[in-house]
Amino acid sequence: MEEPQTYDVIIVGQGAAAYSAGLYTARYQISTLIVGAWFGGETATGGMTGNYPGYVEIDGLDLMLHMQEQTKRLEVPIETAKVESISREGECFLARTDAGDEFRGNAVVLAMGRERRKLGIPREDEWTGHGVSFCSTCDAPLYSGKSAVVVGGGDSAVKGAALLSKYADKVYVIYRGDKFARPEPINVRLLEAQKNAEVLFNTKVVDLKGEDGVTGVVLDRAHNGSNEIDVDGIFIEIGADPNFQLAKQLGVDLNDMNEVIVDKMMKTNIPGVLAAGDITNGSGDLKQTITAAAQGALAATSAYEYAIEHPYACKPHA
User: Fold this and answer.
1) For the chain, how far is it from start to end, CA to CA, in angstroms?
2) Beta strand 132-133 with 58-59: parallel, antiparallel or unpaired?
3) For position 260, what pLDDT does the model report?
4) What is the 3-state secondary structure (H, E, C) of the chain?
5) How far apart are CA 158 and CA 162, in angstroms?
6) Alpha-carbon distance 91 to 134, whole Å?
7) In the chain, % of residues over pLDDT 70
8) Angle ∠(310,311,317) on CA atoms, nearest 5
9) Tell me: the pLDDT tens digits for 241-300?
10) Nearest CA among 292, 298, 243 for reference residue 46
11) pTM for the model
12) CA-to-CA distance for 180 and 126, rounded, in angstroms?
């Protein structure tokens, strides 16, 4: 049987954390593989981004294409496939993909990010980046002089709506419950102070209006005599879940939110296993492209140090 290809480090994911890690490990001149199921992570589907340093404004997909190209120039191989399992075999890690390929690595960087919870309504995926957003912090400035809906009742929704209200002319906060779901009191006060924000409890968004993008939302009950509200966009802030399954396979410690617990250099409790980006607890509640990229650089540095300390731990069998 043909031996699996062997690398100093296998980086699982294709988002900002993964490409940043790949850029740094390549510059450290340790052999690297990037393998992930889908290109770009959440950044690629987030639409226009105005808070990434170096760009006044850039489409998230274009930003990720720049990161990918920068990594490719350093001849880092990239595989588009889902890693279905990772196991420890002796001093090596063995990754198996849904394409039937196997790769061996001295170290592993887990950078699979999170999966945003969705409403499950028509055109939600199709119009992501065209009026549908999952990140108020990223896209709020794009709604200057416009109107928008924020769906959710947790802290991210309340905080996002308060921020959005500073830019938009009108903001509706729509939540299915009869009261907010334990947001921080300071964020509730900030939202209540915004005269252009209106909260609709016991209400759900059941459909989107528009042809090529969002021009309004349809509610499950009437508001001011109509089930429809005309808005320029909708922010879905109902949480996101870490893709923690591979971490759990490896015995990596998780917190009560299923985030990978890391130290300041992105090390986990398992030697040789690093993690970076939205899958970790490394940046608290601030899950952004810039924090993911920063963590990727830190994880790469730890992977390099591990490779130096274990230079012959993982190599093809004779």
Assistant:
1) 13
2) unpaired
3) 98
4) CCCCEEEEEEEECCCHHHHHHHHHHHHCCCCEEEEECCCCHHHHCCCEECCCCCCCCEEHHHHHHHHHHHHHCCCCCEEECCEEEEEEECCEEEEEECCCCEEEEEEEEECCCEEECCCCCCCCCCCECCCEECCHHHHHHHHCCCEEEEECCCHHHHHHHHHHCCCCCEEEEECCCCCCCCCCHHHHHHHHCCCCEEEECCCCEEEEECCCCCCEEEEEEEECCEEEEECCEEEECCCEEECCHHHHHCCCCECCCCCECCCCCCECCCCCEEECCCCECCCCCCCCHHHHHHHHHHHHHHHHHHHHHCCCCCCCCC
5) 6
6) 40
7) 97
8) 105
9) 999 999 999 999 999 999 999 999 999 999 999 999 999 999 988 888 999 999 999 999
10) 292
11) 0.78
12) 29
pLDDT of res. 136: 83
On the question of pLDDT at 1 being above 80, the answer is no
Ordered domains of the chain (ranges, CATH): 5-116+241-309 (3.50.50.60), 132-236 (3.50.50.60)
Query: Amino acid identity of 274?
Result: L
The confidence band for 318, taking pLDDT boundaries of 50, 70 and 90, is very low
CB 147 within 8 A of CB 171: yes
CB atoms within 10 A of CB 259: 22
102 contacts 94 by C-beta, under 8 angstroms: yes
What is the residue whose two structure tokens read 């290809």?
5
Q: Retrieve residue 118's tokens.
A: 């969705």
Range from 46-55, 63-72, 180-189 carrying the lowest mean pLDDT: 46-55
